[in-house]
């Protein structure tokens, strides 16, 4: 975790920013990180990062559109050099708050203010909560932490006061599927995969939400979010029925179609098969979006992508993601199976 001095330094950057732009990763951890800081500062704009494999130069247009004087990147460690150089030309400070390993770490350290919890990797939401430690933001912070399968140090206190929506005796992964806060975490993750118009509506609604009930209750402002949640769950259950068993250790799913939901599908499969290694791949035209769950995920992924040109990936010890060129998928898959079954 970051030191008190580092948290103070982040706070000083935030207080200097009069019109900040918050670029956050397109998931619940990223969104909740933004919400905590926006609620504290009561100023600035938020934009979800949808470019891949990094935060691309296209987001300079948003800096210009909002006339931003500071840029904070939340929950994202892959940032294009062109974007950073564009900020430097405008003399706009860049602050990165994150918990992932970066493939361009040396350059980022030299050209931005970077605050990362890697390799302990406490979620970005947890970092943002620790900057000000407002009790009123605990529910938002906990949602972000749950989405990244992490139990923060304030979890038990929150559970005692809110037993109807959270149970601190559950594992972080179990809370996703067995608590109301976990449901919200999944709702936000699904909602952020929606159209740009609906994502903007979701962000604005979350900016004014006062408590979990504002999300859990279906009304005219949350109806799209609830519909999306039900639709995605139906899709995940449908896809999960197509899984193949690879000996007694591994479950494999290769699928295609309009929606890439590899992370969500792999989480669901692991919730039903806790002792299995899960490999899920969305077979895109140029690349496969891959999600891996289970013991040794990070280790096996690192070994499997080694030597495969154009492959990239990373994550946590038991939950990883990767992008594999479609024409290299079979090679990657065989390496994963070989590595898993060799021990």
CATH fold descriptor of the largest domain: inorganic pyrophosphatase (n-terminal core)
The helix/strand series, from N terminus to C terminus, equals HEHEHEHEHEHHHHHHHHEEHEEHEEH
Instruction: Determine the structural class based on helices, strands and strand pairing.
Output: alpha/beta
Strand content: 15-25%
End-to-end separation: 33 Å
The number of strands is 11
- Summarize the biggest pleated sheet: 6 strands, mixed
Q: Provide the CATH top-level class of the largest domain.
A: Alpha Beta
Number of helices: 16
How many domains? 2
Structure overview:
The chain has 343 residues and is of the alpha/beta class. The protein has 2 domains: 4-224, inorganic pyrophosphatase (n-terminal core); 242-341, Diaminopimelate Epimerase, Chain A, domain 1 (Roll), CATH 3.10.310.40. The protein is built from 16 helices and 11 strands. A 6-stranded mixed beta sheet has the order 6-7-8-9-11-10, with helices on both faces. The protein has a 5-stranded parallel beta sheet with strand order 2-1-3-4-5, with helices on both faces. It is globular, with a radius of gyration of 20 Å. The mean pLDDT is 92.
Helices and strands in order, then pairings?
Elements: H1 4-16, E1 20-25, H2 28-41, E2 45-49, H3 60-66, E3 70-74, H4 81-89, E4 94-98, H5 105-111, E5 113-116, H6 124-132, H7 138-147, H8 155-161, H9 172-178, H10 180-191, H11 196-208, H12 213-216, H13 223-240, E6 244-246, E7 250-255, H14 262-272, E8 277-283, E9 287-293, H15 297-305, E10 312-316, E11 319-325, H16 329-341
Parallel strand pairs: 1-2, 1-3, 3-4, 4-5, 7-8
Antiparallel strand pairs: 6-7, 8-9, 9-11, 10-11
Helix pairs in contact: 1-6, 2-6, 2-7, 6-7, 7-10, 9-10, 10-13, 13-14, 15-16
